[in-house]
Amino acid sequence: MPTVTEFPPGTPVWADLQTSDRAAASSFYRSLFGWHVPEADPAHGGYAVAELSGTPVTAIGPFPPGMERPVWTVYFAVADIDASAAAATETGGAVLLPPGELMPGVRLAIVADPAGAVLGLWQRDHDAPWLRDEPGAVDWLELAAPDYEGTFPFYEAVLGVAVSEMRVNDEPYGLFDVGPANVAGATTAAPGVQAHWLVYFGVADLDAAVLRLTELGGSILEAPVAAEGVGRWAIVADAQGAGFGLLEPEAR
């Protein structure tokens, strides 16, 4: 399994869910993806760390103060979280949660880019394993914003990433790059949709996954589509309303 153990600055390092009903959410994702979800751990801020085959995949936790709806949050590794938080405000963003110690050896901040998309900054002394690019694990991360190119200076300054572009179904698609690796994408948000980061989970069979999701009380936000060189995907929501993507990658 592709277990990632090194996270250069600018790369995604984690994704987790904040929800109003942790028990119901745990049951939903356990049934959908086969995660092992233990009881919430007070030492981890009330989050339960979900695993597949013994490797961490994500975590499910409670609403922080002021949150109104369930949401998935994406975190990126940074070398100096104080400098990155300062760069966020200098480039038109905002610091929603100032840098602080989440647990020994781990510092965390929550920021918003100039379009309003929320993300986390993560600095830690020692990297921990994260399962990626397997069915049931995070496969891709994507910024959706009305003018995603307008956010590029923010991400270049805050995360230290480079930016590039490709075509998906003849439409421009932005890429965030760390060295030779494309670590996340960027696309134009649908009219009326607020800027946000979207987490895609890999599935072996998209149609079966969508069917199972609806059986569990989830909903389809955007019907399945396909693109050559990418695969098939759908935008969905869990039973509490948190949006995410399901991606059946094209066979490599």
From TrEMBL:
<protein>
    <submittedName>
        <fullName>VOC family protein</fullName>
    </submittedName>
</protein>
<dbReference type="InterPro" id="IPR004360">
    <property type="entry name" value="Glyas_Fos-R_dOase_dom"/>
</dbReference>
<feature type="domain" description="VOC">
    <location>
        <begin position="11"/>
        <end position="124"/>
    </location>
</feature>
<dbReference type="InterPro" id="IPR037523">
    <property type="entry name" value="VOC_core"/>
</dbReference>
<dbReference type="InterPro" id="IPR029068">
    <property type="entry name" value="Glyas_Bleomycin-R_OHBP_Dase"/>
</dbReference>
<dbReference type="Pfam" id="PF00903">
    <property type="entry name" value="Glyoxalase"/>
</dbReference>
<dbReference type="InterPro" id="IPR052164">
    <property type="entry name" value="Anthracycline_SecMetBiosynth"/>
</dbReference>
<feature type="domain" description="VOC">
    <location>
        <begin position="137"/>
        <end position="249"/>
    </location>
</feature>
